[in-house]
Design brief:
alpha+beta; Aminopeptidase; seven-stranded mixed β-sheet; 5 helices
Length: 146
């Protein structure tokens, strides 16, 4: 697996990965309405590209395919892994790289119900259970700190 910096040309592939991951992997913990509002399939490429290029953003590649991506600002990060590459070390590799960028600062993730056990194995502790509202639909996640 290769880890490299995000490039604007990666946007379409990560947008598809994000949508498909939320609509398959997260379906075990969230309703159809919740995943539909979380990942609408209509990401704003300008907004996402701007954020991904300003932050430390990486992609994981296997056989010329993006199998995961992650993004960290000073203390907060996100990680998504392709639905067909779950449990194969992709998230661990991405998180290891992102956590190096924190330079000793406390890191907070807003983990989905689905991702919570993964972060607990990485010694993250739950700070609080949250209800995030997206267009009138509430989704549970957990603010977790390492």
């Amino acid at each position: 697996m290769e880890i490299r910096m995000y490039q604007s040309t990666d946007f379409d592939e990560i947008a598809e990965l994000f949508y498909n991951t939320v609509h398959s992997v997260n379906m075990k913990d969230y309703s159809q309405k919740q995943v539909d509002i979380w990942a609408t399939g209509k990401l704003d490429p300008n907004r996402w590209n701007k954020s991904l290029l300003e932050n430390y953003s990486i992609v994981a590649i296997e056989e010329k395919q993006i199998v995961g991506f992650g993004d960290i600002d000073k203390t907060n990060y996100i990680v998504y892994v392709h639905k067909e590459f779950q449990g194969r070390g992709v998230a661990t590799a991405i998180c290891d790289e992102l956590e190096k960028q924190a330079n000793g600062y406390a890191i907070i993730v807003h983990a989905s119900i689905t991702a919570k056990p993964f972060f607990e194995k990485r010694e993250y502790k739950v700070l609080k259970k949250q209800q995030v509202e997206l267009a009138g639909i509430f989704l549970t996640n957990y603010a977790m700190k390492k």
